[in-house]
TrEMBL record:
Keywords: Ligase, Nucleotide-binding. Residues 324-412 form the AMP-dependent ligase C-terminal domain. Monomer. Its EC number is 6.2.1.30. It is an enzyme of class 6 (ligase). Belongs to the phenylacetyl-CoA ligase family. Residues 71-275 form the AMP-dependent synthetase/ligase domain. Pfam families: AMP-binding (PF00501), AMP-binding_C_2 (PF14535). This is Phenylacetate-coenzyme A ligase. GO terms for biological process: phenylacetate catabolic process. One of its GO terms (molecular function) is nucleotide binding. It comes from the Bacteria.
Length: 414
């Protein structure tokens, strides 16, 4: 299938995917029947918007045998989400699903300039989590040597970086930042062969990118994916670092208003909704990812035929409303990137004051320099439209994690 730029979906590919879903999944068949949709009526790209939305709860709460669109005998593997936002979501994979995922991930490595002769240190979770399997399968398909260190164990990570001469690091941005700080503290930069970081599984900003790249002397690439959509490897930045290319030959991306669920035009922030075109075991029909971003209208200067979404601004279930104003972690990232002396890490705590009004307390890692506090408070208020209670803490004091780092805590009673 040939990839094409733009946001229009191939109607025949859509119809074939819905046909497979309808024939194989009792859950999706009932959902389509309830919406009055027959696969045979899908003849045009516009028919996509007639299809019902599906959610994480649909997959999580439906028995595997009822959601899966192939017989269980055809299922080769299962993976699950990390469970950071609730109970784990289990997804099934056929051998063809695994092959397609491996090919997509190898494509990601190619976009990051990784291939034969590279040594990829895979410092992400293995087992039920998709990351380790995806990073390793893609690396091996790309012709690279895989160094499967897994998450955590910083002593092992530093040892393998040195002794194996790893040229590529695959990790969450949080863990890459921790390793970068350790490398700097121990003066190991000259002992490393690293040149590339492929980082994902969480939203991370330009200040974090700068901190990682400067300490490790590498170029980083933001990789996209989620368990329901195979896993990491469903998209990646190219060398222009202006948006994430998504593999439109395997799935289609819509951006919708998370409140009205109506499509929004390119350049407008909204929620990512995906419909798979080639996924067999756990197909997705207008799946609400909760990821917030926007579509690019124009082709990428790199010449790629694949459309782009912006790097994630957050999640629709991650954003909070404070005194009628939407607060997103990405807003803080943008400000931190503008203020000299700020680190990349922060925590936002939302609660209620003695007068019952919403308050936001923000802890920010920063250097001790005159005027930084006043500049930061002013820029935050200008950018977000809220006055925040800001506390500056020393660099490298907020928690780091080998998985996803939580940065927003809502303590209000709902």
């Amino acid at each position: 299938m040939t990839a094409t730029l733009g946001t229009s979906i191939n109607p025949s590919a859509l119809r074939e995917s819905v046909e497979r879903s309808y024939a194989g999944s009792s859950f999706l068949r009932a959902k389509l029947d309830a919406a009055g949709i027959s696969p045979s009526t899908i003849t045009d790209a516009a028919d996509l918007t007639r299809l019902p939305f599906t959610t994480k709860a649909d997959i999580r709460d439906t028995p595997l045998v009822d959601y899966t669109a192939v017989p269980l005998a055809a299922v080769a593997r299962v993976h699950s989400s990390s469970g950071t936002t609730g109970r784990r979501t289990v997804c099934a994979y056929t051998l063809t699903d695994i092959e397609n995922w491996t090919e997509m991930f190898a494509r990601c490595y190619a976009y990051a300039g990784v291939g034969k002769g590279d040594r990829v240190q895979i410092a992400v979770g293995y087992g039920m989590w998709t990351a380790g399997a995806g990073f390793q399968g893609g690396a091996e398909r790309a012709g690279a040597l895989a160094v499967p260190t897994g998450p955590g164990n910083t002593e092992l990570q530093l040892e393998m970086l040195r002794t194996m001469g790893s040229t590529v690091l695959g990790a969450t941005s949080s863990f890459a930042l921790l390793l970068a700080e350790l490398v700097e503290a121990q003066g190991l930069q000259d002992q490393l062969a690293l040149r590339t970081g492929i980082l994902g599984s969480e939203r991370w900003g330009e200040r974090t990118r700068s901190a990682i790249e400067s300490r490790l002397g590498i170029t980083t690439y933001d990789i996209y994916g989620l368990t329901e959509l195979w896993g990491p490897g469903a998209g990646i930045e190219c060398a222009t670092h202006d948006g994430i290319h998504v593999w439109s030959d395997h799935y289609h991306v819509e951006i919708v208003d998370p409140e009205t669920l109506e499509p929004v035009p390119p350049g407008t922030l909204g929620e990512v909704v995906v419909t798979t075109l080639t996924k067999q075991a756990t197909p997705l029909i207008r799946y609400r990812t909760r990821d917030l971003t926007y579509l690019y209208a124009d082709p990428c200067p790199c010449g790629s035929p694949y459309p782009r979404i912006a790097r994630l601004a957050g999640r629709s279930d991650d954003q909070v409303k404070v005194r009628g104003v939407i607060f997103l972690p990405a807003q803080v990232d943008m400000v931190l990137a503008e203020v000299d002396g700020c680190g990349s890490e922060f925590q936002a705590h939302v609660g209620r004051g003695l007068d019952g009004r919403d308050v936001v307390s923000l802890k920010v890692e920063a250097e001790d320099r005159p005027g930084l506090y006043e500049e930061l408070v002013h820029r935050l208020r200008t950018r977000i439209g809220l006055r925040l209670d800001v506390e500056l803490v020393p660099l490298a004091t907020l928690p780091r994690s080998e998985r996803k780092t939580r940065r927003v805590f809502d303590h209000r009673e709902h």
